[in-house]
Amino acid sequence: xxxxxxxxxHAEKNRISKMxxxxxxxxxxxxxxxxxxxxxxWMLSELPQIKALEAYKxxxxxxxxxxxxxxxxxxxxxxxxxxxxxxxxxxxxxxFVSIEDIRFYKHHGVDVIGIMRALYHDVKAGSxxxxxxxxxxxxxxxxxxKPDRSIKRKIREAVISIQIEKRYTKDEIxxxxxxxxxxxxxxxxxxxxxxxYFGKSTDELNIAEAALLAxxxxxxxxxxxxxxxxxxGERRRKVLKEMLKNxxxxxxxxxxxxxxxxxxxxxxxxxxxxxxxxxxxxxxENKYGDELYTSGxxxxxxxxxxxxxxxxxxxxxxxxxxxxxARAGVEAALVAIDIKTxxxxxxxxxxxxxxxxxxxxxxxxxxxxxxFKPFVYAAAVEKGMTxxxxxxxxxxxxxxxKPGELWSPKNYDGNYYGSVTLKAALAxxxxxxxxxxxxxxxxxxxxxxxxRLGIKSELQPYASLAxxxxxxTLLEMVSAYSAFASGKxxxxxxxxxxxxxxxxxxxxxxxxxxxxxxxSEKTTEEMKILLRAVVEEGTAQSAKELKxxxxxxxxxxxxxxxxxxxxxxDRLAVGVWVGRDNHKPIGKKEAGSRAALPIWIEFMKKAPxxxxxxxxx
Length: 617
Hints:
Shape: elongated
Structural class: alpha+beta
Largest sheet: 5 strands, mixed
Low-confidence stretches: 28-47, 612-617
Mean pLDDT: 85
Distance between the termini: 109 Å
Number of strands: 14
Strand order of the largest sheet: 2-1-3-10-11
Strand content: 5-15%
């Protein structure tokens, strides 16, 4: 009996002990389950709103076009051009599906079969040789998640992928992936990759090219045909074998594609009109910041592709000619402006942008020499003088820029011609007569006239200003000369219109030149008489070979350091500057009429007879 009681007590103790253990385990399980459920809830509660994809706007390059609609350049941080999924050829899609996710059209975002197959191959190989991520999971990771290797990220990636699959079609998902993927060589998205590797659009890719691009996202640098052509060829062959295995291509197509040569160099655009493009870029960057490089703008500029070609050829030919007479290192710049609108139609800022990006058309401050004289004569005409009135060309002594200093200008040939008309004084570029005229008018009146017509640089209020002893830029000189042609002051305009990626207008410049105080009709006609005389009987007589009415003025500074010619016809105001960046002499007797004017004439021969009609939408 005692023994039975002892056994019962022992059994009761065991039961109580087990109950305690059960409740402890239950508590631990509850806590663990709570932690797990809470963690999952926490992870999932942080998931992004998948519907945000409906407003998906990838970082996209902005494109710059000429006034005729010709693509000039791309501006980008990431070179990317979005292309809709329906424009991507089937064989391109199949190349990516073959190597990245063969069950893409069968799973719902997460491929369990694919994961098990990858795990089997990894165990068999003793290392990770296959991944289990689907294309949808890769898209989720690229768009929504950080590239860490945590379990939390993998769970979130899977859930996001399932949500994406519920909301979008397979082709939409594949299109988003192809537009987002990085292909190496600074190419983001399939269209930029196609242009970078093959110089063509996605819809022009052949099977071999599609297979190469499909081989890149896994390791763009490792499989780059430019860095590792052997590995690139092997990887492309693997893609082609997968396409053959899955009956996406025939045996004959496989052999043809496998023999197709790999690209040997990337297609980085050495874009057209680089000095002009850089001027546009700087202006727009100040206004739009990084949006300029990421928002897919379409920028329609004022540049005429035909005139730009003529300008570049004229500068090249002119520098080659000067190079036969002078030592190396001479530079030149050219600007052409529509006199009615201010549209910059051509711009050359130097001999080679890819060696030196300094734009001598917009940023080089140089003395214009006698090319500044028309502002003196314009001030005189505005005061009531005419081209036939007389001015004395004789020695004159004036206060210099330093205390107690006297300055006396001399004519180019050392002679003085007494009483001469304003027309003769400008045509022959007489320094003494011009300085005497400026002194009579008052140098501040000359400065006021120049500023009113568009000269923005600081002008020194000394008598020597009358013959161009104060620094200016070529662009502002050409802009100001356009007032002599039309009577209206025009502001240089580099672009006409900016469209967003959706085709809406972001910005549009005025269709006509801005209103502003220019010159009266009478003054304009007198200035044309004066500047025509320079061509008919003065320092620019070689321009008569154009066989049409042109007007202008040469300019040469001391020791032949700078040579200029700025002139116009009834359509364009055009300026040419020649010199050295170090301000050394160009060469013996390299005056404006010899160094700059031939370039101007060459351009005016080839420039289209009509301002081209804009072709942008």
